[in-house]
Write a structure and sequence with these properties.
The structure is a single chain. This protein is of the alpha/beta class. Helices cover 34% and strands 14% of the residues. The protein contains 11 helices and 9 strands. The strands form 2 sheets. The chain has a 5-stranded parallel sheet. Helix 2 links the parallel strand 1 and strand 2. The longest helix is centred in the C-terminal third of the chain and has 19 residues. The model has no long low-confidence stretch (mean pLDDT 93). The chain binds phosphoric acid mono(formamide)ester. The site of phosphoric acid mono(formamide)ester has 10 residues, from helix 2.
């Protein structure tokens, strides 16, 4: 049996969103993730923290970064990791999300990481199982580990989050990344602008506590961070932009538009990015200011921290379940 680990001030059973997390809890996660960044840079990356635990990745939408980094995070902490192949599962025979989750739950996993196209589906699932559930992205609602890895990237580069001016640009309407980042940055004391055509700004934007801009020249002025988002064509019903060419002309990040931001402004993108649509290729690859690859690296560390903290509330590995 693995020795018990202290539950040091993170009382949540699941991680379903950033909304509702306190500044202290976010800081705790980021501080722990920081230690895992160093661990991941070592030759021997493997730990035994989650030995005896089982993690199942259940992704109903495609993913490169989130699924792979949760798999790596689990394995580096010593857990057994299963990737459910939804395309060849019984979901294809009509089994519901809840029945699938309860079937997996009967196999006693410790953690389910779930991505689903419907907002709220992961929260619903979490009520039906008795393991930890982590939201890997639900519809246009939340993608909490993305916001945490973005925050870790920013904090390591800028030394803080509070007081920074962050512009989130592009398809805000359909973006769970934007929502999670807005909650996190507001909680941590940053100032957030959203920059997009009116058709891609959600009706509740003002309520989210952001400043709304419809042009890059004003929206990016004096920003510390420029976070670009892709057009989520798979969630669009109807036409939201006249054409991709026109969209890039007005909203695609290039050096001309970036010139109004602070000279040391960081360029971020959660990926996958569409070069020549929301971001110019040269800007995306700028070795001094683009931190897009660093965001991916921070993703593994943040997911290790989430797995570590959330499993501390579980019974010890090997103990009989109630
Ligand atoms: N940023 C992000 O969620 O990427 P994936 O869709 O590749 O997981």
């Amino acid at each position: 049996m693995t020795p018990p680990r202290d539950n040091i001030g993170f009382p949540h059973r699941h991680l379903l969103g950033i909304e509702g997390l306190s500044q202290t809890e976010i800081t705790l996660l980021l501080d722990l993730a920081d230690t895992y960044v160093e661990q991941n840079r070592r030759t021997d990356k493997k730990l035994t923290t989650l030995r005896g635990r089982t993690l199942i990745n259940l992704f109903f939408e495609s993913s490169t970064r989130t699924r792979t980094s949760f798999e790596l995070a689990g394995k580096r902490l010593g857990a057994d990791v299963i990737n459910m192949a939804v395309a060849v599962s019984s979901i294809k025979k009509g089994e519901t999300l809840i029945d699938t989750a309860m079937t997996l739950n009967a196999m006693h996993p410790d953690v389910l990481v779930v991505r689903h196209p419907e907002s709220g589906a992961v929260s619903l699932l979490s009520e039906k199982v008795n393991c930890v559930v982590i939201n890997g992205g639900d519809g246009s609602h939340e993608h909490p580990t993305q916001a945490l890895l973005d925050a870790l990237t920013i904090r390591r580069r800028k030394g803080r989050l509070g007081g920074l001016l962050v512009a989130i640009c592009g398809d805000i309407l359909h973006s769970r990344v934007a929502r999670s980042n807005i909650h996190l940055l507001n909680t941590m004391g940053a100032r957030v602008r959203v920059v997009a055509p009116p058709t891609l700004i959600p009706a509740e934007a003002q309520r989210l506590g952001v400043e709304v801009y419809h042009d890059m020249a004003n929206g990016l002025r004096d920003c510390d961070i420029v976070m670009m988002l892709r057009l989520q064509l798979e969630r669009m019903r109807g036409s939201f932009v006249p054409s991709v060419r026109e969209y890039f002309h007005f909203y695609g990040l290039d050096y001309a538009k970036l010139a109004v931001a602070k000279p040391d402004a960081l360029i971020m993108h959660p990926g996958p990015m569409n070069r020549g649509v929301e971001i110019d290729s040269e800007v995306a690859d700028d070795i001094d200011r683009s931190v897009i690859r660093e965001q991916v690296e921070m993703g593994v560390a943040v997911r290790m921290a989430c797995l570590d903290l959330l499993t501390r509330v579980l019974p010890e590995a090997g103990a009989p379940r109630p």
